[in-house]
Amino acid sequence: MTALHTAASERAPGRLTARVALFAGLGTALVLVCLGSAALGQYGIGLADVAASTLHRLSGPLGLGHPVGDPFAESALWQIRMPRVVMSLLVGAVLATSGALMQGVFGNPLAEPGVVGVSSGAAVGAAFVIVAGVDVLGQFTVPTAAFAAGLASVLLVYLLSRSGGRTEVVTLVLTGIAVNAVAGAGLAFCMFFGSQTARDQIVFWQLGSLNGSRWAYVVSALPFAVVGLTGAWLLARRLDLLALGDRAARHLGVDVERLRLTAIVLIAVMVAAAVAFSGVIGFVGLVVPHLIRMAIGPGHRALIPAGMLGGAVLLALADVVARTAIAYADLPIGMLTALVGGPFFFWLLRNTRARAGGWI
């Protein structure tokens, strides 16, 4: 679809109604999922108590609402559950938005944040400090190593794929595949030489989990998420123009190389920060943007904010299932998203091939 067609579709009354309905639905779902996630767990807290306590905290000097009557429940709510809920919202919004950016920049419906090596690089960084037993930053040692290694991997992909002052999409993809393969070998190396305890930690980290989320982690990831999400929204119009192709976008005044670099940097920063605290969580960046496009079309000015909400809702809901599906067990959230995303990815492959008449 061209940028002109996209703009025209955005003005269509039916499309506008669909967008209003989608945003209203996602906003309502976000509130309900957050309250439900905070209420559910091994120690049950009523929805009304969660809502009243949240209102009390947010209202400040106005004094609205009230704390939970049971001090233990109040402490569990705000020291254990709420940090996890907020972290799930941040990570979900970041992954979905990054997926939309990747698909817009690469012009490929199958692109997702892992293509540029950020997740595999972060996994190697985390595995290395786990195996080496490094603990210089205390509880932030593994997240910091994962964040730095994720950024380094993306930088390496970009530098290796750059030639003649430009980066071609195909070269970026192929370079990302190569770096992901090397990172996989590095991860296997760490697991081979690590102790059994270290191997268990690495495997659990790779599967993704929000267990152990704390306010300190949320505060650390929040600035990177805000910068990345804001930057993605600001790039929306130029991403629509990029849909015309590199040459046409340049004629319309888009600096394609700068746009591509900016998008990759934003993806690297916010995904590295999210993965550093949650581990590897796949398919959110692939599934959510496509579901949003099916509902309201491909225009990025609506796709990106809707993707933020959709990703937040999806991951918060997945986290509820991870905590409550099996009593006294916390399932890896990456496993749950893969169970949903895998079949969707297969359907997407089949659907894309059927529409295109084969791969070009």
UniProtKB/TrEMBL annotation:
The keyword GTP-binding does not apply. GO terms for cellular component: plasma membrane. It is a multi-pass membrane protein. The keyword Transmembrane applies. Keywords: Cell membrane, Membrane, Transmembrane, Transmembrane helix, Transport. Its main location: membrane. Pfam families: FecCD (PF01032). GO terms for molecular function: transmembrane transporter activity. InterPro entries: ABC_BtuC-like (IPR037294), ABC_transptr_permease_BtuC (IPR000522). Gene3D superfamilies: ABC transporter involved in vitamin B12 uptake, BtuC. GO terms for biological process: siderophore-iron import into cell. Coiled coil: none annotated. The chain crosses the membrane at residues 20-40, 85-102, 114-133, 140-160, 172-194, 215-236, 263-291, 303-325, 331-349. It is found in: Cell membrane. Belongs to the binding-protein-dependent transport system permease family. FecCD subfamily. This is Iron ABC transporter permease. It comes from Streptomyces bauhiniae. The lineage of its organism: Bacteria, Bacillati, Actinomycetota, Actinomycetes, Kitasatosporales.
